[in-house]
Write the structure tokens for this entry.
Amino acid sequence: MDNAALKERILGLVPDAEYQENKQFLTFIIPPAKMYDLAVKLKNEADLAFDFLFCLTGVDMVKFLEVVYHLESTTHHHQIELKVRTEDRENGAVDTVCDIWRTAEFLEREVFDLLGIRFSNHPDLRRIFLEDGWVGHPLRKDYVDEVNIVEF
Amino acid sequence: MKEIINLPVKNVEEEEYHINMGPQHPSTHGVLRLVVSLQGEIVKSLKPHCGYIHRGIEKMCEKDTYPQIIHLTDRMDYLSAHINNHAVCMLVEKALEVEVPERVTYIRTIIDELNRIASHQLWWCSFGMDMGGLTCFFYGLRDREKILDIFEESFGSRLLHSYYTPGGLMMDIHPDFQKNVKAFIKYFRKKIKDYDDLLTGNIIMQLRTKGVGILTKEDAISYGVTGPSGRASGFACDVRKHHPYGVYDKTEFKEILGTKGDTFERYMMRMHEMLESMKIIEQLIDNIPAGDYKAKMKAVIKLPAGEYFQRVEAARGELGVYVVSDGNKSPYRMKFRSPNFSNLSVLDHISRGCKIADLVAIGGSLDYVIPDIDR
């Protein structure tokens, strides 16, 4: 499937997804409530078959927190990028995809640890790098740490 | 005395108990703690605890310029330092649409492959040592030394090189580089036979690795296990083949895939890969074009606002670099998709039901570099 057909296909699955211009990947902003259902379809439908989640990360865009998924199909070799946004900085939560792509279990723990985005239904959502009593999430833009971070 | 004798003795074969492997255990090859649930000596489940060497590299990147970031990437997977540098350099070049001289792409590809061989040699010697063969350790380090000497001659450092810069190389290669690389290939082709004689054909090693820690292709894809470990399960994930960079598209090499996905197959993948890397180097070493060793770059590198992703095949799997830029000289957000982190996530899944001694072999065959997990 070429990129134009793939774009139509995904916008057909989630009509209220927003297409974003990007040089490298087809990028879609998905409403948080639709993400899990879309992920199931992306993995299981034969013409899509996105079975390899090669990157999952988060970005603090100040106005909102964003989770970014990079997906590839090992059969069709097409790639897409999905973004899910949440504006709630305190309790913002996104549905976990770790039962669809098992690699997401650790990657989501990393995003939770460093950016403080929660993943609902995650089996083991604990901090992965920092110690359990750590206060705050270092990769947020408003994170202040007078002790450890040296300003350049 | 009688009372003591009559105390109920718990049957350790039936009761589940936990032991800590690490953070200072020789077989974890760094500071990684594995909390292993055991019943007798059978592994029931396992929880990795990471973060002992977390330095916040992604946070530091948000304050650093792109040439500075290259020095940080050396310190993630220090055994494939060049390949990590390559990822960041290519990302910057792609974002700025800079055409690097052909000489640079050739030299980078050759050095990446030398780096891959050196990394696999160190893996081989430490894997042998994990299995109890100390001779392997000396053989592997002896041959790796030859590559480090070539590196030292050309750019002065042996482990953390930071040799690539955005747009080219820090300096040109040494005049003897080609001669020495060819001498090394000739030397190592003979020596790799010793590796097979010493360890591959060893019956104890085969009995300990065959059929142990089986990873199916579906699980390898789902867990994102890339590199030789993923290919042992039949997952065609070689970035050099599927998303070529450097001059890999001009060279002929095989992407070797396994079928069984056990520890022995993962071992064999790396042995084959060393031969393939030598093949790539042989095709390129006599054809390095003359020319500049770097392209003209601005003194201050600022990426246009937007997001960029670059994938490369590091020695342990796919390294992805994701950058969100807001047009400043430092990235707004930088993420390293490190191969070891995803490879670690599968350890619990494949070691269930194995003996505790097999865990050492499985861990060795997945080839962790802890600073790359923790970043």
